[in-house]
Amino acid sequence: MKKLFLIYCLFIIPSFVKAQNTTLDVVYLEHLKWQPKNKEKYSKEETALLIEAMNEKRPFLLTLNTNESVYRPIPKINNNEPTDGTSISFSSSSTYIFKDIKNNIYLSEESYPKKFIIKDSLQKFNWQILNETKKILGYFSKKATTTFDNYECIAWFAPDIEIKNGPDEFWGLPGLILNLEIKHKKADEIRIIEVESISKSQSPSILQETAKKKKGKTISKNEFQKIFDDFVKKEDEMLGGGVDTD
Length: 246
Fold this sequence. Notes:
alpha+beta
C-alpha cells in the first residue's frame, strides 16, 4: 500500500503545473558567496560583517503563467533587538521585474540611484543544455549553462513544469528555472538563487496590475546602466576609492 501511495504522489506532484492557464507562486531565496581577491582591502571585522550580510538569504516571489511573470522581493520583518554594534545588509534595488515572453517585453521598476521604469526587450540567453540531472523539490531537473555580458551562469530547470521562465530576468529554457548560480568574470562574488516552494498563485491578478504600472521616467536598460555606473563612480570618488564597472 505504501509503495502504491508513493507512486501516486510522484505523479500528482507536478499535475497542477501542467494545467492550462494555471498561475503559480514560486518562492526563491537569494544570497551571495564572496571570495575577496584583495584580502588586504578589508579588516577581519569588515570581512566578517560582509560575509555574514552576503550569506543572508533574501526571499523573492515569482508569480507566473505561460506567458507572463512578476519577480519581486518579499518584505522581511526584522524582530531582532537593536544593538550598538555595526551591521551590514543588502537589498534589491528592483521593486519588481515583469516579463512578457509572448510579446518580448521586459519591464522593471528601479529605486536606486533614483526611481526609473525600465522598458526594453527581453535579454536573450544562449543556453547549452547538459546531460547532468538531479532532483530539486522532487522535480527531475536538468543542468544548463550560458554566458552573457561578462557573466557565467549555471541553471537547473524542471522540464515537467512546462513554462519557459525563471527568476529575475532569466528565461528561455524548456522548463521552469529552479536554481541559478551567476558569477561575474571579474567580481569576487557568486549570486545564488534557489527555489524554496512552488504552489498555485494566491494573487494571479498581480500580472495584469504590474503590466499597467508605468509611474516614473521610462528608459532602456542601457540608459539605466550608464546612469547607474556614473552614479557609482562619483560616489566611489567621493569616498576616495576606485571602481571597476566592466
